[in-house]
Specification:
By secondary structure, this protein is α/β, with parallel strands linked by helices. The protein is built from 17 helices and 22 strands. The strands form 5 sheets. Strands 6-7-8-3-9-10 form a 6-stranded mixed sheet, with helices on both faces. A 6-stranded mixed sheet has the order 16-19-20-13-21-22.
Protein backbone atom coordinates (compact mmCIF):
# COMPACT_ATOMS: atom_id res chain seq x y z
CA UNK A 1 0.00 0.00 0.00
CA UNK A 2 1.22 3.50 -0.86
CA UNK A 3 2.83 5.21 2.12
CA UNK A 4 0.55 7.85 3.67
CA UNK A 5 1.85 11.35 3.01
CA UNK A 6 3.81 10.41 -0.10
CA UNK A 7 3.28 12.87 -2.96
CA UNK A 8 1.15 11.31 -5.69
CA UNK A 9 0.82 14.40 -7.87
CA UNK A 10 2.75 17.64 -7.99
CA UNK A 11 2.69 20.48 -10.46
CA UNK A 12 4.79 23.62 -10.47
CA UNK A 13 4.69 26.86 -12.45
CA UNK A 14 1.25 25.95 -13.77
CA UNK A 15 0.08 28.83 -15.96
CA UNK A 16 -2.57 29.31 -18.62
CA UNK A 17 -3.22 32.32 -20.80
CA UNK A 18 -6.25 32.89 -23.00
CA UNK A 19 -6.46 35.80 -25.42
CA UNK A 20 -6.53 38.87 -23.18
CA UNK A 21 -6.77 36.86 -19.94
CA UNK A 22 -4.26 35.12 -17.70
CA UNK A 23 -6.39 32.47 -16.02
CA UNK A 24 -3.58 30.82 -14.01
CA UNK A 25 -0.24 32.23 -12.98
CA UNK A 26 2.63 30.12 -11.62
CA UNK A 27 0.52 27.78 -9.42
CA UNK A 28 2.33 25.15 -7.33
CA UNK A 29 0.37 22.38 -5.62
CA UNK A 30 0.85 18.80 -4.41
CA UNK A 31 -1.67 16.06 -3.57
CA UNK A 32 -0.53 13.38 -1.12
CA UNK A 33 -1.55 9.78 -0.58
CA UNK A 34 -4.19 9.37 2.11
CA UNK A 35 -5.42 12.97 2.09
CA UNK A 36 -8.40 14.99 0.93
CA UNK A 37 -6.98 18.21 -0.47
CA UNK A 38 -9.56 20.99 -0.76
CA UNK A 39 -9.40 23.54 -3.57
CA UNK A 40 -11.41 26.74 -3.12
CA UNK A 41 -11.76 30.15 -4.70
CA UNK A 42 -14.58 32.31 -6.02
CA UNK A 43 -15.60 32.33 -9.69
CA UNK A 44 -12.77 33.49 -11.90
CA UNK A 45 -10.13 32.31 -9.44
CA UNK A 46 -8.86 29.64 -11.85
CA UNK A 47 -10.27 26.43 -10.32
CA UNK A 48 -12.09 25.30 -13.45
CA UNK A 49 -9.11 26.05 -15.67
CA UNK A 50 -6.82 24.07 -13.37
CA UNK A 51 -9.13 21.03 -13.45
CA UNK A 52 -9.47 21.20 -17.23
CA UNK A 53 -5.69 21.25 -17.58
CA UNK A 54 -5.30 18.18 -15.40
CA UNK A 55 -7.97 16.34 -17.39
CA UNK A 56 -6.27 17.22 -20.68
CA UNK A 57 -8.99 19.55 -21.96
CA UNK A 58 -6.61 22.56 -21.94
CA UNK A 59 -2.89 22.67 -22.57
CA UNK A 60 -0.91 24.80 -20.08
CA UNK A 61 1.67 27.42 -20.98
CA UNK A 62 5.24 26.34 -21.52
CA UNK A 63 7.20 26.06 -18.30
CA UNK A 64 4.51 24.12 -16.43
CA UNK A 65 5.94 20.97 -14.84
CA UNK A 66 4.28 17.78 -13.54
CA UNK A 67 5.36 14.90 -11.31
CA UNK A 68 3.42 11.64 -10.88
CA UNK A 69 4.47 9.43 -7.97
CA UNK A 70 7.52 11.70 -7.59
CA UNK A 71 8.63 11.09 -11.19
CA UNK A 72 8.57 13.88 -13.81
CA UNK A 73 5.94 13.26 -16.49
CA UNK A 74 4.30 15.00 -19.39
CA UNK A 75 0.76 16.24 -18.92
CA UNK A 76 -0.59 13.66 -21.38
CA UNK A 77 0.67 10.89 -19.08
CA UNK A 78 -1.82 11.89 -16.36
CA UNK A 79 -4.84 10.88 -18.42
CA UNK A 80 -3.37 7.69 -19.88
CA UNK A 81 -3.59 4.09 -18.63
CA UNK A 82 -0.54 2.24 -17.33
CA UNK A 83 0.59 -1.22 -18.48
CA UNK A 84 -2.02 -2.86 -16.25
CA UNK A 85 -4.79 -0.79 -17.82
CA UNK A 86 -5.23 1.45 -14.76
CA UNK A 87 -5.76 5.21 -14.81
CA UNK A 88 -3.46 7.49 -12.86
CA UNK A 89 -6.25 10.02 -12.33
CA UNK A 90 -10.04 9.81 -12.21
CA UNK A 91 -12.38 12.78 -12.59
CA UNK A 92 -15.94 13.50 -11.53
CA UNK A 93 -16.86 16.81 -13.13
CA UNK A 94 -19.71 19.08 -12.07
CA UNK A 95 -21.25 18.35 -15.47
CA UNK A 96 -21.16 14.55 -15.32
CA UNK A 97 -21.49 14.09 -19.12
CA UNK A 98 -23.61 11.00 -18.57
CA UNK A 99 -25.73 9.91 -21.53
CA UNK A 100 -29.18 10.05 -20.01
CA UNK A 101 -30.78 8.12 -22.87
CA UNK A 102 -28.64 5.12 -21.87
CA UNK A 103 -28.74 2.94 -18.77
CA UNK A 104 -26.23 2.94 -15.92
CA UNK A 105 -24.70 -0.27 -17.25
CA UNK A 106 -24.36 1.16 -20.77
CA UNK A 107 -22.71 4.32 -19.42
CA UNK A 108 -20.27 2.23 -17.40
CA UNK A 109 -19.40 -0.04 -20.34
CA UNK A 110 -18.91 2.97 -22.60
CA UNK A 111 -16.25 4.35 -20.26
CA UNK A 112 -14.32 1.17 -19.49
CA UNK A 113 -12.00 -0.64 -21.89
CA UNK A 114 -11.96 -3.60 -19.48
CA UNK A 115 -15.74 -3.99 -19.59
CA UNK A 116 -15.81 -3.57 -23.36
CA UNK A 117 -13.25 -6.34 -23.76
CA UNK A 118 -15.41 -8.58 -21.54
CA UNK A 119 -18.28 -8.04 -23.93
CA UNK A 120 -16.13 -9.26 -26.82
CA UNK A 121 -15.16 -12.45 -25.00
CA UNK A 122 -18.00 -14.43 -26.51
CA UNK A 123 -20.63 -16.40 -24.66
CA UNK A 124 -21.36 -15.03 -21.24
CA UNK A 125 -19.61 -11.75 -21.96
CA UNK A 126 -22.70 -9.60 -21.48
CA UNK A 127 -23.63 -11.29 -18.22
CA UNK A 128 -20.12 -10.78 -16.84
CA UNK A 129 -20.29 -7.12 -17.86
CA UNK A 130 -23.60 -6.66 -16.04
CA UNK A 131 -22.33 -8.40 -12.93
CA UNK A 132 -19.20 -6.23 -12.85
CA UNK A 133 -21.37 -3.11 -13.15
CA UNK A 134 -23.71 -4.26 -10.41
CA UNK A 135 -20.75 -5.00 -8.13
CA UNK A 136 -19.36 -1.53 -8.73
CA UNK A 137 -22.69 0.21 -8.08
CA UNK A 138 -23.33 -1.92 -4.99
CA UNK A 139 -20.40 -0.20 -3.31
CA UNK A 140 -22.43 3.00 -3.10
CA UNK A 141 -25.58 1.49 -1.51
CA UNK A 142 -28.03 3.36 -3.71
CA UNK A 143 -31.33 1.94 -4.97
CA UNK A 144 -30.92 1.89 -8.73
CA UNK A 145 -31.85 -0.60 -11.43
CA UNK A 146 -28.69 -0.57 -13.60
CA UNK A 147 -30.80 -1.32 -16.69
CA UNK A 148 -33.10 1.70 -16.29
CA UNK A 149 -32.45 4.76 -18.44
CA UNK A 150 -30.69 7.53 -16.51
CA UNK A 151 -33.20 10.07 -17.79
CA UNK A 152 -35.53 8.55 -15.17
CA UNK A 153 -32.92 8.64 -12.37
CA UNK A 154 -32.80 11.30 -9.65
CA UNK A 155 -29.74 13.53 -9.02
CA UNK A 156 -28.43 11.23 -6.29
CA UNK A 157 -28.51 8.20 -8.56
CA UNK A 158 -26.87 10.09 -11.41
CA UNK A 159 -24.08 11.32 -9.13
CA UNK A 160 -23.39 7.77 -7.99
CA UNK A 161 -23.26 6.54 -11.59
CA UNK A 162 -20.85 9.35 -12.50
CA UNK A 163 -18.62 8.40 -9.57
CA UNK A 164 -18.78 4.71 -10.50
CA UNK A 165 -17.81 5.57 -14.09
CA UNK A 166 -14.80 7.53 -12.85
CA UNK A 167 -13.57 4.79 -10.54
CA UNK A 168 -13.49 2.09 -13.20
CA UNK A 169 -9.99 0.92 -14.18
CA UNK A 170 -8.64 2.98 -11.27
CA UNK A 171 -6.79 1.80 -8.19
CA UNK A 172 -7.50 3.73 -5.00
CA UNK A 173 -4.07 2.72 -3.65
CA UNK A 174 -1.94 5.50 -5.06
CA UNK A 175 -4.56 6.86 -7.46
CA UNK A 176 -5.66 10.49 -7.68
CA UNK A 177 -9.38 11.34 -7.70
CA UNK A 178 -10.53 14.84 -8.69
CA UNK A 179 -14.03 15.78 -7.52
CA UNK A 180 -15.44 19.03 -8.91
CA UNK A 181 -18.46 20.19 -6.89
CA UNK A 182 -19.69 16.60 -6.40
CA UNK A 183 -22.49 17.59 -3.99
CA UNK A 184 -24.00 20.34 -6.17
CA UNK A 185 -27.04 18.21 -7.02
CA UNK A 186 -27.20 16.13 -3.85
CA UNK A 187 -29.80 16.51 -1.08
CA UNK A 188 -28.24 17.15 2.31
CA UNK A 189 -28.81 13.64 3.64
CA UNK A 190 -26.88 12.13 0.72
CA UNK A 191 -23.82 14.32 1.24
CA UNK A 192 -22.74 12.31 4.29
CA UNK A 193 -23.00 9.09 2.28
CA UNK A 194 -20.69 10.55 -0.36
CA UNK A 195 -18.32 11.72 2.37
CA UNK A 196 -18.13 8.18 3.73
CA UNK A 197 -17.17 6.90 0.28
CA UNK A 198 -14.51 9.61 -0.09
CA UNK A 199 -13.03 8.86 3.33
CA UNK A 200 -12.89 5.15 2.48
CA UNK A 201 -10.98 5.91 -0.72
CA UNK A 202 -8.64 8.20 1.21
CA UNK A 203 -7.96 5.50 3.80
CA UNK A 204 -7.17 3.06 0.99
CA UNK A 205 -4.30 5.31 -0.07
CA UNK A 206 -5.89 7.61 -2.65
CA UNK A 207 -5.14 11.29 -2.98
CA UNK A 208 -8.32 13.30 -3.48
CA UNK A 209 -8.49 16.83 -4.87
CA UNK A 210 -11.85 18.17 -3.71
CA UNK A 211 -13.25 21.33 -5.33
CA UNK A 212 -16.20 22.98 -3.60
CA UNK A 213 -17.85 26.34 -3.02
CA UNK A 214 -19.31 25.02 0.23
CA UNK A 215 -16.89 25.91 2.96
CA UNK A 216 -18.59 23.68 5.51
CA UNK A 217 -17.70 20.71 3.31
CA UNK A 218 -14.04 21.73 3.29
CA UNK A 219 -13.96 21.87 7.09
CA UNK A 220 -15.86 18.58 7.41
CA UNK A 221 -13.82 16.61 4.89
CA UNK A 222 -10.49 18.10 3.85
CA UNK A 223 -7.10 17.61 5.52
CA UNK A 224 -5.44 20.49 3.66
CA UNK A 225 -6.81 23.30 1.53
CA UNK A 226 -5.36 25.44 -1.26
CA UNK A 227 -6.88 28.86 -2.00
CA UNK A 228 -6.85 30.42 -5.46
CA UNK A 229 -7.56 34.09 -6.10
CA UNK A 230 -7.28 35.81 -9.44
CA UNK A 231 -5.46 32.83 -10.97
CA UNK A 232 -2.79 32.76 -8.29
CA UNK A 233 -2.24 30.44 -5.35
CA UNK A 234 -2.76 32.41 -2.15
CA UNK A 235 -1.69 29.66 0.24
CA UNK A 236 -1.92 25.97 1.13
CA UNK A 237 -2.53 25.14 4.77
CA UNK A 238 -3.90 22.49 7.09
CA UNK A 239 -7.64 22.97 7.51
CA UNK A 240 -7.18 22.68 11.28
CA UNK A 241 -5.18 25.92 11.21
CA UNK A 242 -8.00 27.97 9.66
CA UNK A 243 -11.42 29.30 10.62
CA UNK A 244 -14.26 29.93 8.18
CA UNK A 245 -13.76 33.68 8.51
CA UNK A 246 -10.04 33.36 7.73
CA UNK A 247 -10.73 31.15 4.73
CA UNK A 248 -13.27 33.62 3.33
CA UNK A 249 -10.79 36.46 3.80
CA UNK A 250 -8.09 34.53 1.94
CA UNK A 251 -10.48 33.70 -0.90
CA UNK A 252 -11.79 37.22 -1.38
CA UNK A 253 -8.87 39.31 -0.23
CA UNK A 254 -11.16 41.22 2.07
CA UNK A 255 -13.16 40.68 5.22
CA UNK A 256 -16.61 39.31 4.43
CA UNK A 257 -19.02 37.88 6.95
CA UNK A 258 -19.65 34.23 5.92
CA UNK A 259 -23.10 34.24 7.47
CA UNK A 260 -26.13 36.06 6.05
CA UNK A 261 -29.73 36.47 7.14
CA UNK A 262 -32.20 38.00 4.71
CA UNK A 263 -33.98 41.09 5.98
CA UNK A 264 -37.73 41.22 5.31
CA UNK A 265 -41.09 41.02 7.05
CA UNK A 266 -44.07 39.02 5.81
CA UNK A 267 -46.75 41.45 4.64
CA UNK A 268 -50.35 41.30 5.70
CA UNK A 269 -52.87 41.29 2.87
CA UNK A 270 -56.60 40.98 2.47
CA UNK A 271 -56.10 38.94 -0.72
CA UNK A 272 -56.25 35.14 -0.38
CA UNK A 273 -52.83 33.76 0.45
CA UNK A 274 -51.25 31.24 -1.92
CA UNK A 275 -51.86 27.79 -0.47
CA UNK A 276 -51.93 24.09 -1.22
CA UNK A 277 -53.74 21.17 0.34
CA UNK A 278 -53.53 17.38 0.08
CA UNK A 279 -50.65 17.48 -2.41
CA UNK A 280 -49.56 14.00 -3.47
CA UNK A 281 -47.22 12.57 -6.08
CA UNK A 282 -44.77 9.70 -6.39
CA UNK A 283 -43.29 10.11 -2.89
CA UNK A 284 -45.28 12.99 -1.39
CA UNK A 285 -48.43 11.73 0.32
CA UNK A 286 -50.03 14.68 2.04
CA UNK A 287 -48.76 18.25 2.05
CA UNK A 288 -50.61 21.34 3.23
CA UNK A 289 -49.34 24.88 3.62
CA UNK A 290 -50.25 28.53 3.34
CA UNK A 291 -47.72 31.05 2.06
CA UNK A 292 -47.92 34.64 3.24
CA UNK A 293 -47.31 37.56 0.93
CA UNK A 294 -43.66 38.65 1.20
CA UNK A 295 -42.54 35.42 2.90
CA UNK A 296 -39.78 32.90 2.15
CA UNK A 297 -40.90 29.40 3.05
CA UNK A 298 -38.30 26.63 3.19
CA UNK A 299 -38.92 22.98 2.38
CA UNK A 300 -36.48 20.40 3.78
CA UNK A 301 -36.24 16.62 4.03
CA UNK A 302 -34.21 13.58 3.07
CA UNK A 303 -34.46 12.01 -0.40
CA UNK A 304 -37.79 10.25 -0.67
CA UNK A 305 -39.37 12.42 2.02
CA UNK A 306 -41.37 14.35 -0.58
CA UNK A 307 -39.53 17.64 -0.07
CA UNK A 308 -37.66 17.41 -3.36
CA UNK A 309 -40.85 16.52 -5.25
CA UNK A 310 -43.01 19.38 -4.00
CA UNK A 311 -41.66 22.06 -6.41
CA UNK A 312 -42.52 19.86 -9.39
CA UNK A 313 -46.05 19.29 -8.13
CA UNK A 314 -46.61 23.03 -7.85
CA UNK A 315 -45.21 23.94 -11.25
CA UNK A 316 -45.83 20.95 -13.52
CA UNK A 317 -49.23 19.29 -13.39
CA UNK A 318 -47.86 16.17 -15.11
CA UNK A 319 -46.21 15.23 -11.80
CA UNK A 320 -49.29 15.60 -9.62
CA UNK A 321 -51.31 12.62 -8.41
CA UNK A 322 -53.80 14.68 -6.42
CA UNK A 323 -54.16 17.92 -4.54
CA UNK A 324 -55.59 21.41 -4.71
CA UNK A 325 -53.91 24.80 -4.99
CA UNK A 326 -54.79 28.45 -5.06
CA UNK A 327 -52.52 31.28 -6.06
CA UNK A 328 -54.11 34.21 -7.82
CA UNK A 329 -57.89 34.17 -7.75
CA UNK A 330 -58.42 32.63 -4.33
CA UNK A 331 -60.28 29.77 -6.00
CA UNK A 332 -59.16 26.21 -5.24
CA UNK A 333 -58.16 24.33 -8.39
CA UNK A 334 -57.16 20.65 -8.77
CA UNK A 335 -53.45 20.39 -9.50
CA UNK A 336 -54.08 18.03 -12.39
CA UNK A 337 -56.03 20.67 -14.29
CA UNK A 338 -54.63 24.00 -13.21
CA UNK A 339 -52.32 26.19 -15.22
CA UNK A 340 -51.06 29.30 -13.52
CA UNK A 341 -48.81 32.04 -14.81
CA UNK A 342 -48.60 33.38 -11.25
CA UNK A 343 -46.00 30.83 -10.18
CA UNK A 344 -42.48 30.48 -11.63
CA UNK A 345 -39.80 27.82 -11.12
CA UNK A 346 -36.02 28.05 -10.95
CA UNK A 347 -35.04 24.40 -11.61
CA UNK A 348 -32.33 22.56 -9.67
CA UNK A 349 -30.12 21.66 -12.65
CA UNK A 350 -28.97 24.88 -14.29
CA UNK A 351 -27.26 23.28 -17.28
CA UNK A 352 -29.86 20.61 -18.07
CA UNK A 353 -33.14 22.38 -17.27
CA UNK A 354 -32.37 26.07 -17.09
CA UNK A 355 -30.03 27.95 -19.34
CA UNK A 356 -29.68 27.37 -23.08
CA UNK A 357 -25.92 27.68 -23.46
CA UNK A 358 -25.65 28.36 -27.21
CA UNK A 359 -28.13 31.24 -26.90
CA UNK A 360 -27.28 34.77 -25.79
CA UNK A 361 -28.06 36.49 -22.51
CA UNK A 362 -30.80 38.46 -24.26
CA UNK A 363 -32.39 35.33 -25.72
CA UNK A 364 -32.28 33.46 -22.41
CA UNK A 365 -33.76 36.39 -20.48
CA UNK A 366 -36.59 37.07 -22.91
CA UNK A 367 -37.76 33.47 -23.40
CA UNK A 368 -40.43 33.71 -20.71
CA UNK A 369 -41.97 36.99 -21.97
CA UNK A 370 -41.74 36.86 -25.77
CA UNK A 371 -45.44 37.67 -25.99
CA UNK A 372 -44.74 41.10 -24.48
CA UNK A 373 -41.88 41.90 -26.85
CA UNK A 374 -43.63 41.92 -30.20
CA UNK A 375 -46.37 40.34 -32.22
CA UNK A 376 -46.87 36.66 -33.05
CA UNK A 377 -43.98 35.50 -35.22
CA UNK A 378 -42.36 38.93 -35.10
CA UNK A 379 -40.02 39.94 -32.26
CA UNK A 380 -39.54 43.65 -31.59
CA UNK A 381 -35.75 43.74 -31.28
CA UNK A 382 -35.78 47.26 -29.87
CA UNK A 383 -38.11 46.17 -27.07
CA UNK A 384 -35.93 43.12 -26.44
CA UNK A 385 -32.78 45.28 -26.18
CA UNK A 386 -34.45 47.63 -23.72
CA UNK A 387 -35.82 44.73 -21.69
CA UNK A 388 -32.43 42.98 -21.60
CA UNK A 389 -30.53 46.13 -20.61
CA UNK A 390 -32.92 46.70 -17.72
CA UNK A 391 -32.52 43.16 -16.35
CA UNK A 392 -28.76 42.96 -16.83
CA UNK A 393 -28.50 46.11 -14.74
CA UNK A 394 -30.94 44.97 -12.08
CA UNK A 395 -29.31 41.55 -11.78
CA UNK A 396 -25.77 42.97 -11.92
CA UNK A 397 -24.67 40.31 -14.41
CA UNK A 398 -20.89 40.75 -14.36
CA UNK A 399 -19.29 40.38 -17.79
CA UNK A 400 -22.68 39.89 -19.38
CA UNK A 401 -23.79 41.77 -22.47
CA UNK A 402 -26.97 41.17 -24.42
CA UNK A 403 -24.99 39.41 -27.15
CA UNK A 404 -22.83 37.28 -24.78
CA UNK A 405 -23.46 33.55 -25.05
CA UNK A 406 -24.75 32.56 -21.63
CA UNK A 407 -22.49 29.47 -21.50
CA UNK A 408 -19.51 31.83 -21.32
CA UNK A 409 -20.68 33.40 -18.06
CA UNK A 410 -19.58 32.20 -14.63
CA UNK A 411 -21.94 29.91 -12.73
CA UNK A 412 -23.13 32.75 -10.49
CA UNK A 413 -23.96 35.00 -13.42
CA UNK A 414 -25.71 32.19 -15.28
CA UNK A 415 -27.87 31.73 -12.18
CA UNK A 416 -28.67 35.45 -12.14
CA UNK A 417 -29.87 35.23 -15.75
CA UNK A 418 -32.22 32.38 -14.80
CA UNK A 419 -33.54 34.45 -11.89
CA UNK A 420 -34.18 37.30 -14.30
CA UNK A 421 -36.08 35.04 -16.70
CA UNK A 422 -38.34 33.85 -13.86
CA UNK A 423 -38.83 37.28 -12.27
CA UNK A 424 -39.60 38.92 -15.60
CA UNK A 425 -42.88 37.01 -15.63
CA UNK A 426 -44.01 39.02 -12.57
CA UNK A 427 -45.05 35.90 -10.62
CA UNK A 428 -46.81 36.04 -7.27
CA UNK A 429 -44.84 32.97 -6.15
CA UNK A 430 -41.29 32.02 -7.08
CA UNK A 431 -40.20 28.42 -6.42
CA UNK A 432 -36.43 28.03 -6.06
CA UNK A 433 -34.58 24.69 -6.19
CA UNK A 434 -30.94 24.89 -5.04
CA UNK A 435 -30.70 28.61 -5.87
CA UNK A 436 -26.94 28.84 -5.16
CA UNK A 437 -25.75 25.46 -6.50
CA UNK A 438 -22.27 25.75 -7.98
CA UNK A 439 -21.85 29.49 -7.39
CA UNK A 440 -19.07 31.19 -5.46
CA UNK A 441 -19.51 32.84 -2.08
CA UNK A 442 -19.71 36.45 -3.31
CA UNK A 443 -22.30 35.52 -5.98
CA UNK A 444 -24.19 33.59 -3.32
CA UNK A 445 -24.65 36.71 -1.19
CA UNK A 446 -25.66 38.72 -4.26
CA UNK A 447 -28.33 36.12 -5.09
CA UNK A 448 -29.56 36.12 -1.50
CA UNK A 449 -29.98 39.89 -1.57
CA UNK A 450 -31.66 39.74 -4.98
CA UNK A 451 -34.25 37.34 -3.55
CA UNK A 452 -34.73 39.37 -0.37
CA UNK A 453 -35.21 42.59 -2.32
CA UNK A 454 -38.07 41.15 -4.35
CA UNK A 455 -39.62 39.59 -1.24
CA UNK A 456 -39.61 43.01 0.43
CA UNK A 457 -41.59 44.21 -2.60
CA UNK A 458 -44.25 41.53 -2.01
CA UNK A 459 -43.02 38.42 -3.82
CA UNK A 460 -43.66 35.10 -2.05
CA UNK A 461 -40.91 32.49 -2.32
CA UNK A 462 -40.62 28.74 -1.70
CA UNK A 463 -37.08 27.37 -1.36
CA UNK A 464 -35.77 23.83 -1.44
CA UNK A 465 -32.03 23.37 -1.23
CA UNK A 466 -29.43 20.68 -0.62
CA UNK A 467 -27.39 23.42 1.09
CA UNK A 468 -28.72 24.04 4.59
CA UNK A 469 -27.00 27.43 4.48
CA UNK A 470 -29.52 28.62 1.87
CA UNK A 471 -32.45 27.80 4.14
CA UNK A 472 -30.86 29.43 7.19
CA UNK A 473 -29.93 32.56 5.26
CA UNK A 474 -33.26 33.11 3.55
CA UNK A 475 -36.25 31.50 5.21
CA UNK A 476 -38.82 32.87 7.63
CA UNK A 477 -39.69 29.25 8.50
CA UNK A 478 -38.92 25.78 7.17
CA UNK A 479 -41.36 22.89 6.77
CA UNK A 480 -39.78 19.52 7.59
CA UNK A 481 -40.83 16.47 5.56
CA UNK A 482 -40.50 12.81 6.49
CA UNK A 483 -42.03 9.77 4.80
CA UNK A 484 -44.01 11.84 2.34
CA UNK A 485 -45.59 14.14 4.92
CA UNK A 486 -44.89 17.46 6.59
CA UNK A 487 -44.25 16.73 10.27
CA UNK A 488 -43.88 20.32 11.45
CA UNK A 489 -41.79 23.42 10.99
CA UNK A 490 -38.80 25.29 12.36
CA UNK A 491 -39.41 29.02 12.90
CA UNK A 492 -36.79 31.59 11.88
CA UNK A 493 -35.59 32.07 15.45
CA UNK A 494 -34.72 28.36 15.70
CA UNK A 495 -33.08 28.04 12.29
CA UNK A 496 -29.49 26.81 12.15
CA UNK A 497 -27.75 24.26 9.98
CA UNK A 498 -27.39 21.95 12.96
CA UNK A 499 -31.09 22.16 13.86
CA UNK A 500 -32.12 21.54 10.25
CA UNK A 501 -29.92 18.49 9.85
CA UNK A 502 -31.15 17.05 13.17
CA UNK A 503 -34.76 17.70 12.16
CA UNK A 504 -34.64 16.10 8.72
CA UNK A 505 -32.65 13.14 10.06
CA UNK A 506 -35.34 12.56 12.71
CA UNK A 507 -32.91 13.19 15.56
CA UNK A 508 -35.11 15.82 17.20
CA UNK A 509 -38.80 16.51 17.62
CA UNK A 510 -40.13 19.26 15.40
CA UNK A 511 -42.91 21.35 16.87
CA UNK A 512 -46.20 21.31 15.04
CA UNK A 513 -47.01 24.98 14.43
CA UNK A 514 -50.62 24.24 15.29
CA UNK A 515 -51.99 25.89 12.17
CA UNK A 516 -55.15 24.65 10.54
CA UNK A 517 -55.09 22.77 7.29
CA UNK A 518 -54.85 25.07 4.29
CA UNK A 519 -58.40 24.30 3.17
CA UNK A 520 -60.16 24.92 6.48
CA UNK A 521 -62.05 28.05 7.34
CA UNK A 522 -61.67 30.11 10.48
Amino acid sequence: MTSPGRELLRFAGLSKTFPGTRALSDVNLAVRAGEVHGLVGHNGSGKSTLIKILSGFYQPNEGSSFWLHEQPVKLSRLSQHDRDGRKAMAFVHQDSNLILEMSAIENLILRSSTLRSQGRSGRGGRSSQEQACRDLLARFSVELDPNDLLVNADPVQRTVVALACALQDWDSDGGILVLDEPTAALPGGEVNRLFRIIRTLRDEGAGILYVSHRLDEIFALADRVSILRGGELVTTDDVANLTKRELVRLMLGEEMEPEYRASFDAQGSTAPAPAAQDLAGATLEDANFTLQRGEILGIAGLPGSGADELPRLLTDRRHAASGMARVKSGRWVPLRTWKSDAIALLPPDRSEEGMIGPMTVAENLSLSVLGRLGKPWRLNHGAERSFTKQWIGELNVVGGYASTYVERLSGGNQQKVLFGRALARDPLVLVLCDPTAGVDISSRFAIYELIARHVREGLSVIVTSSDMGDLVALCSRVLIFQDGKSIGELPRAALSESQLVHAIEGLMTVDDPGTKRAGQSD
